[in-house]
Amino acid sequence: MARYQLKEAFYTLQGEGARSGRAAVFCRFAGCNLWSGRERDRASAVCTFCDTDFRGTDGVGGGRFLSAETLADHLEELWEAGADSGSASGSSSDSASGSGVVVGSGLDSDSVPGFDSRSGAGSRSSTGYRYLVCTGGEPLLQLDSAAIEALHRRGFEIAVETNGTRPAPPGIDWVCVSPKGRAPLVLTSGDELKLVFPQPEAPPERYSGLAFDQFFLQPMDGPELAANTEQALAYCRAYPQWRLSLQLHKLLGIP
Ligand SMILES: C[S@@+](CC[C@H](N)C(=O)[O-])C[C@H]1O[C@@H](n2cnc3c(N)ncnc32)[C@H](O)[C@@H]1O
Ligand SMILES: Nc1nc2[nH]cc(C(=O)O)c2c(=O)[nH]1
Ligand code: SF4
Ligand SMILES: [Mg+2]
Hints:
CATH architecture: Alpha-Beta Barrel
Largest sheet: 9 strands, mixed
Radius of gyration: 18 Å
Shape: globular
Strand content: 15-25%
Strand order of the largest sheet: 3-1-2-4-5-6-7-8-9
Bound molecules: S-adenosylmethionine, the ligand Nc1nc2[nH]cc(C(=O)O)c2c(=O)[nH]1, iron/sulfur cluster, magnesium ion
Helix content: 10-25%
CATH class: Alpha Beta
Number of strands: 9
Structural class: alpha/beta
Order of helices and strands: EEEHEHEEEEHEH
C-alpha cells in the first residue's frame, strides 16, 4: 500500500486567497472525507459543491509514492522544471464551469517582451521561493510529519488548503481553512479562512470571530457563479473584515 496517493501535481500560480498570484507546485492528494468524488454521490455528500476531480492517481504528475522521500523528490522536480521553464502547465482537475476570459495556459516567458530568461538567477532561481500548496481532495488525510520534514529539507515553504475537519500536523507554514457548513470544524485558527459563498448552513458571521489573520469569501463556482459573485461582493462591501477571492486560475485558463 502506497503511503501517499496523488491525483495530480503541477506548477502554476496560486489562484485563490491571500497568496494568489504566487508561483507554486500544487500537490493534489487523492480522496476526501466529505465526498466520494463520484457524481452519483454528490447530492447526498456532506460537501456538495466541489469543483475538483480528486479520485484516483491518474492525473498529470499524479501517482503512488512509497515514502516521504520519493514524494518530496517528485515535487522538487516539478518545482525545478516549472521555475526553469517559466510556464504554467500541466493538468487541472477543476471541473466546474469557468466563465472568465481565457488567455491560454502556455505562457512562455521567453516570448514575453522585456523578459530575458537568460538573465541572472536572482529573479527566477529554482532554489529560492520554493512554495508547495497541498490540496486535494483533503490533504490532511495524508500529509504527515515525515512528508513535511522531507519537503522542508528541500527548501519548500508548505501551505495547505483544508476543509478544517482534521487536525493539522505541526510544521505547516501556511494554513488556509475552507469550512463546509455541514461538517464539524476542528481547525479554528490559521493564516486564512476562505469561505465558499453562499452556503446556507455556513453564514460568514459564524466564522468572523475565529483566530485567523485574513478572511475571504470565494463565490461558489457552478451555474450560479455570476449571482454568487454579486452577493459576495455586496457582503464584502458591507463587512470589510471580509475580502473577495476570485479564482484567478479559472479567469486565466491556467491549472
Ligand atoms: C477542492 S478544495 C480541496 C481542499 C479541501 N478539501 C477544502 O475543501 O478546502 C480547494 C478549494 O476549492 C474550494 N472550492 C471547492 N469547490 C468550489 C466551488 N464550486 N467554487 C469555489 N470554490 C470551491 C474549496 O472550498 C477549497 O477552498
Ligand atoms: N491555480 C490554482 N490555484 C488554486 N488554489 C487552490 C486550488 C485548489 O484546488 O485547492 C487551486 C487550483 O486548483 N489551482
Ligand atoms: S471538502 Fe474540499 S475536496 Fe472535499 S468535496 Fe469539499 S471542496 Fe471538494
Ligand atoms: Mg482548484
